[in-house]
Amino acid sequence: MFLHNVSLICFLCSYLVALALELTQFVRRTTAARIGTLLFGVAGFVAHTTYLLGRSQLHDLPPLLSSTYDWMLVSAWLAMALYLGVQLWSPKLSLGIFAIPIVLMLIGVAPFTSRVPIPQVSQMRWWSMLHASLWSIGILGILLACLASLMYLVQHYRLKSKQVELPALHLLSLERLSRINWWLVVVSVPLQTLGMATGLWMIYLSKKGEHPVDLLSSTVVINAVMWVVMALLFGWMLGAKNPTGRLVAFRTILGCLFMVLTLLAMKIGSADIIHGFSSPQQAGGNP
Amino acid sequence: MNVRVVYCNHQSADLTVRERLAFPSSESLERAYRELRNRFPRSEHVVISTCNRVELYCAQEDPTDAPEHRDLIRFLADFHQLPMETLLSEMLEYQGPDAVRHLFEVASSIDSMVLGESQIVNQIKSAYEIALRTDANGPLTSALFQRAISVSGRVRTETKLSEGKVSIASVAVGEFGKSIFDRFDDKTVLVVGAGEMATETLVYLQGEGVREINVCNRSLERAQRIAAEFNGVAHSWDELQRCLGRADVIVSTTGAERPVITADLMKTVRRESGPRPLFMLDLGAPRDVEPAVGNIDDGIFLYDIDDLESTCERNRKKRVLEIHQARRIIEEETSKFMRDVYHKATGPIVKRLRENWEEVSRQELEILFRKLPDLGDRERQAIEKSIYRVVNKLLHPPLETLRDEARTGTPHGMISTIKRLFQLND
User: Fold this and answer.
1) 0.80 cut: is pTM over it?
2) Any chain B CB within 8 A of the CB of A158?
3) What's the half-sphere exposure (Cβ side, CA atoms, 13 Å) at B379?
4) Minimal CA separation from A176 to chain B, in Å
5) N or C: which end of chain A has fewer CB within 10 A?
6) Does B58 participate in catalysis according to the annotation?
């Protein structure tokens, strides 16, 4: 019963308050505000978890498989979990102003995507689970790499312009940010590749089922283009001779922006015909 | 005693100004002292030249011998071949107790960019020793500088100013170095120069875990001495380019009068080493690294002394109570020093006046005793005591007034009046 009382607004508001408290640190740094940020973050996270469990029970499917809407919320949940984990490990780190907006963006975009479970899931449950997990974690990894790159650029700008570190903007060193960025891209792109491969395998399997999928459908083509861009970034990072950290950060951000815009355009432009309907109205569901 | 200081420091002038006014080597200081002696033969001088300040102290017994502010500025302008008009607006001045207080603050590192740093005391000692060696100083500046060093010791003992980040290296590495690198134990450090600043920097960097240390200096012998102290490797000056290419952290602290690491040299180095992160700390004044080096590529992070000003200011605000306590000690010591100086100035006149009067009374007593030969020893002693009491009572009011006057400054007017009244010739 309790699970059904939690709505998206509950954790969205909690995260918004956490972000607002994080921003107050730029005006005046207080312990109360820091603790407040963490408390609202944890409260939102509990509500978020409860909501996802409710969704899972409703469709009798893991949240990742339910719909694109759930994918978004699971990605936001993972990002929030990571943020809270890092914050507990290093409370002085100013991660909130970078991580919470990404969480909010994912939650904010979710209502504009389909809530209807993907039709092929019932036929290929385990393949679907693997495919969704690989893509979701791969996409989240690139988003986090983008976040690390953004932090790198902020830190790089401060150091180049010889500015004193703001207490509210304590970031990791360039060396560590660069390393985190590299590993995130190097791990995420192969995951996306595997996601792509499982997707193609599922298309092959779908030919024998009730809902066959065309290999040249817009979803497959757009995802393939996105994957190629990511693979190029991956190849460049592994093969480039003496790239500067700043250039790596710029290219990661560009790659991530391309990925996000492609995903959004596909979802909002009704181009995704495989992973459910593009909008709740089309699906006939409640917003 | 008349004491005056003309100075510029990190608060009043940019590094671009300070480096043009600096006396980077003992040779240039010796040359400056010779010139000062020629221009102002009746003055004593001490010059303090560090990366944070250039200060010229001069003292004379007689105020009429004191060079004017303009004279001292003209000396600096001529010595460094700079236009005097520029310096007039850059150089500040203190006189008398204010100058003494200023020196005490400098020696106690209250006036330093890095609050509590200990290097300034050694720099003051070194400046004083060079002045001593070249006969530029004298009893007045000796008393002043010795007191300054003892005040510095008192401030360090009675306050907590020397605790925490108290070196330029610690501030630079803490604020910038640790934002570039995660750790230092896998980094190669190159120290260019082999002075005291180099040693201090290496002590800090070794504390941060640095293991690979290279020291490059024009004098290989000095480089070897420092390298041996820190388990590093000494390199001759010819190897500078190769050392630059291998380093992750470069600290330059030479006493060179012009940059030793030029943009052209670094471009060549970076072409070979690639654009990997490089933390460069230029602690020289004049600067050792051309500012254009910082713009060669994205990986070079170059900082000079002035770039640390904001961080030091933030640290200073956190330690306002300690500064307050140090200032209280300095104020007390300044008053004490000035009192001693003024009393010293009135001492000779008091002595002469007393000797004169005692001589007069002795002569009169002799005449009296010759006229009264029948007096016994007891009577003679009683008369002598009475006479001395009279002398003391008569001397008491003028001497007390003189002492009162000496509490606020040398009572030149009163000393001259007393000399005229009692005909005390020099």
Assistant:
1) no
2) yes
3) 7
4) 6
5) N
6) no
